[in-house]
Amino acid sequence: MAAGFVLLAAVRDVYLGGLFQRITPPLIAIAAFSLCTVLFLPVLLGSRRSLVALRRRPGDLLWVNITTACAWLGFLYALKLIEPTIVQILYSGIGPLSVIWIERYFSTDGGVRLSRSERIAFLGLFAALMFSAVVVLAGLSGAPSDSVGDAALGVIFAAGGGIAISVATTLCRRLNDTGVTPSALLALRFPATAASAFVVLALLPSGLPTGAAWLEAVLVIAALLIVLASFVNQVAISLASPLTVRVVLAVGPVLIFFLQVFEGRLAASPYSLIAATLYAFAALAAATARQRAIHIYRHPTP
Fold first, then answer.
1. CB-CB neighbours of 2 under 10 Å
2. pTM: predicted TM-score of the whole model, two decimal places
């Protein structure tokens, strides 16, 4: 499931990066996440266990909606502004770092204690993210921005969305553990995202496009590239181990880079490929070090 999600996500990122040069991101978000809610609502209504679990944790469901809305809108606008490879590096890579930082400074028990190998791996991950941001800001990526301001905004959207999706993923896993099925959760995860996208679209000068010819194409794109990918991701979150998910996600930016080259819209920047490769090695090292630390903690040497 995790591998399937990475493949779908890579195709999604490359395709949407080009599509957003012609269509505004909120339009896709409204179609995709409204459709997702409609499609999975019957599943929720047929799952008594999921309904009972959700009624017991309304706060978690609310925050899932808020953080998911922030994450997706930030991610979609980042795809419009900067190269998809860099978007995925920042979006996926900032999550583990932000979770460690939040637990370290805001947890009552001091958070997770990192081993020496973990600290080195996370330092490497941070360096990969910083290098990726510099590639964008210096105009060295495969999609040079029109201005430094646009590039900086794209970096902020991608990183901010990555922090938000990490919180949302943690909350989703918590709800899955209480008995909410992945399909049932998809019915109520995205209403705030669709509503927020509608507000943003209403505030834009262009507003909704005229005519109805665009609607069918947008719905097909939304169903295949966002709804299906979201379902596969939700199942992967509920079934796969954290190490498996992190290892598979680590190779995502490299896959996106080569799909970009195949598509031909963007230049094949060697700096972007270096950034994706550095990120893959750092993410793999961090995931492996975390798993080793968990194993030692659970099975200490006598």
1. 19
2. 0.84
Residues 6+ apart with CB under 8 A from 107: none
Q: Tokens in use for 93?
A: 């890579």
Q: How many C-beta neighbours within 10 Å does residue 296 have?
A: 11
Distance CA 153, CA 204 (A): 17
Q: Where do the H-state alpha helices sit in the chain?
A: 2-19, 25-45, 48-56, 58-81, 84-106, 116-137, 148-177, 182-189, 191-203, 213-222, 228-239, 242-250, 252-263, 270-298
> Which residues lie closer than 8 Å to 58 by C-beta, 6 or more apart?
none
Region for residue 179 given its phi and psi (left: phi exceeds 0; alpha: psi -120 to 50; beta: otherwise) = left
The domains of the chain are located at 2-298
pLDDT tens per residue, range 207-249: 555 555 556 666 677 776 677 777 776 666 665 555 556 666 7
Apex 291 CA angle, 163 and 158, nearest 5: 15
